[in-house]
Amino acid sequence: MLAFLIKRSANAIFVMLSVSFIAFMIFRFVGDPVELMLNEQATQEQRDELRNRLGLDEPFIVQFGTFVSNAAQGDFGISFRNQQDVLGMIAERFPATFELVIVATLISLVAGIPMGVITAIRRQTWYAEAMQFTSIIGVSLPSFVVGIGLILIFSVWLGWMPAFGRGETVDIGWWSTGLLTHSGRMSIILPALSLSLFQITLVMRLVRAEMLEVLRSDFIKFARARGIPARAIHFRHALRNCLMPVVTMTAMQIGGLIAFALVTETVFQWPGMGLLFIQAVTFVDVPIMAAYLCIVALIFVLLNTLVDITYAMIDPRLRGAEK
Length: 323
Description:
This protein is mostly helical. It is built from 13 helices and two strands, in the order αααααααββαααααα.
């Protein structure tokens, strides 16, 4: 088990270094931040002084090594545009993104699991076919199209919900939440629905596939032969055996939702990490862009490593497969 943990940790470190290196290489070609930070009347001396102060006159390898060394200590530098601590800016935006992802995940589970069960046990009904067709639409439509459609229907036409923003928030220590206020709860509904639509489709299809397989198993046949009611068979016995893959997939998808929430946050002007990243790209704010990608990559790596370790603890054969 120790060798397994060491190998997984080494893989995680390698992935983080690779992501950091690739991000730094890409950001070298997005523009010169000095040109955006200074006006057109700035002299060459002022430009050189700012470039030296930001460390942009150093070779690429030196800049990358300095970034990795500081990032390992939790220091991602200073924002070129705002002249503020990058980690503090991301920490300020993280609660908004985290709440959006958690609400979207809950919506996907609450809607996707019953839909998956219904489409499995009522395969020939019209409403099961309608759910299957709707799931195809959910997979096909881009999230920004879904977001714009939700805004058009529920904000512009019906006027039921706000079209943008997070609403009123409440500070609990360093954490800010909008779930404790009415405007905050109303503001999170549309972006969470937009973000969860693809996830609902994944959960529904996974539950349906697992349910169909479980319903063909021998213990389900024995349960029917004993006269156990169909409702108990479907929801007490079959569904329980379907939930482990769903939980695993949901945990893995949380990292993806955090990473790809930037489109939803941009459409709804949700003040999260994704919107901060888009603004950083606009102004070539390299420290924020690099820090965002590293933090998202770290979330992915931690979730994957946690799942691998959990599987290895449950099934010791996986540890031997690593040798």
